[in-house]
Design goal:
Layout (H helix, E strand, L loop, with lengths): L13 E4 L4 E3 L7 E6 L6 H12 L1 H6 L2 E7 L3 H10 L5 E4 L4 H5 L3 E6 L2 E6 L3 E4 L5 E5 L7 H11 L2
Parallel strand pairs: 3-4, 4-5
Antiparallel strand pairs: 1-2, 1-5, 3-8, 6-7, 8-9
Length: 156
């Protein structure tokens, strides 16, 4: 499947968050939404990325941007991650990776000589009308939040 690019309509979805509540992308129309896909809760890179967004959530909110994290983790794993790291935004469970497929970011990966299918660490900024405004695929987990904020500030 082809990865979404700027200008594409963002596929709508409804997924369960860490509290088991249903969250739908459609409910955020009128706001910018940063959808960041990450491979696995409680791993070092994912912790760094999530905590960076947690710590800058107030700034993101002033820029009319809501954060949603999506991974193939279960609701229970997300609840543990949210609690242990005091995350202040929704993490959503895509266990069957249907949403990752619809965004074109589920596929072959290589790590330590092993090849497997998984989520590629890519973020999508969805504009107020539900279109992909920007795709972020060139960043380090430690500065992901800075790359996002720099882009949003440049458009202010």
């Amino acid at each position: 499947m082809k990865q979404l690019t700027a200008g594409d309509r963002a596929p709508l979805f409804e997924l369960l968050n860490a509290q088991g509540l249903s969250i739908s992308l459609a409910s955020f129309l009128g706001n910018k939404v940063l959808i960041y896909f990450y491979p696995k809760a409680m791993t070092p890179g994912c912790i760094m990325q999530a905590c960076g967004l947690r710590d800058r959530k107030k700034e993101l909110a002033t820029l009319n941007t809501i954060v949603l994290g999506i991974s193939p983790d279960s609701v229970n794993q997300l609840a543990n991650f949210t609690s242990k790291k005091s995350l202040n935004f929704n993490l959503l469970s895509d266990e069957d990776h249907k949403i990752a497929l619809s965004y074109g970011i589920w596929g072959e990966k290589k790590f330590m000589g092993r090849t497997y299918d998984g989520i590629h660490r890519i973020s999508f900024l969805i504009n107020e009308k539900g279109l992909v405004e920007k795709v972020f695929d060139k960043f380090k987990t430690k500065n992901h939040h800075e790359v996002i904020l720099e882009y949003l500030m440049s458009k202010k």
